[in-house]
Amino acid sequence: MKTFRMDHALPVDTTIPDPSLVVLIGAAGAGKSTWASTWPATQVLELDHFRALVSDDAGDQEATDDAVFALQAVLEARLARRKMTVVDATNTEAGVRASLVATARRYGVPTVALVVPTPATVCAERQEGRCTSRRVPRQVVLAQHAAMLAAWPGLPGEGFDHVVVAEYLHRLEPLLKRLADTWRAELGWDGGEGLGDLLLVRRYFGPDVLPMWRWLDGSHLAGGDRVAEIRLGADRIVLAQRNDIDGAGDVGFEVLVGCPHDEACEGQAWAPACNITDLARALTGELMHDPDVHCTAHGPRHNNAAPDAESPGCTVQQAPYTEAARA
Ligand SMILES: [Zn+2]
Ligand SMILES: [Zn+2]
């Protein structure tokens, strides 16, 4: 349904056909990537990501030409297959938009201009929270914002089949549905195997360790608790899943380290492993000096200290790993 919208003299249109080429338009810091994330990651071509692919640095402006070249190749491959595609870049230059519209036309795919008109002051403020290499100078942000405003009324004339303003869109539902599907699959609620006993592993150490994780069932190393290893080539880390790590029935992990008392100790020295940092410290040997190390032959590291007076141990962190946003 199209109704007339007075303030910009363009009819309100919320149509995004599938397939279509969605061209995000907005200044740096406008929140374009948040909107892009409501589509599956494979459908989003983010210019910053292509800069990083060719130069290891998403903010490297010198890499823009090569990044655009690579993005264009993927764009054409997708449009040739009539695949829904979202281009996440400022797209505030008329020449850039014209090239995108022409490409989509060539493959007979409709085009959508998705305008993200976040106020310039907000866009500029958001730059302050970014790391230096990705921070866009205030003057540039203001110029991009002005260019977006100037281009807006002319977008239909540029050949876009639909001009959609982000503030009128309902995109939360597809985003939440996709996240919920992932979650159900991990729990095995979709009829698949799910992550099962790896759910806790992932919560503590993140998804990247899962392919290297192997349960060593039948191992007596941990006094009846379940033992696992993380193994890659010549490297190996041994862990125990403690079913009562704090005497209060909480589950947690400990990692096998060298005994801090005696190099030749025949016992097993265990240190709490709360997160991926602890695994890195276990591998470098640093973790054996942790105050919470306890050896099966020597006992706790600080025999005369009050138990855990100065250290909270692991159990404080119930969900130390939060899944980071996709690159
Ligand atoms: Zn020992
Ligand atoms: Zn402790």
UniProtKB/TrEMBL annotation:
Region Disordered, annotated ranges: 298-327
This protein's name: ATP/GTP-binding protein
Organism: Streptomyces albus
Segments passing through the bilayer: none
PANTHER family: PTHR12435
Highest taxon above the source species: Bacteria
InterPro entries: P-loop_NTPase
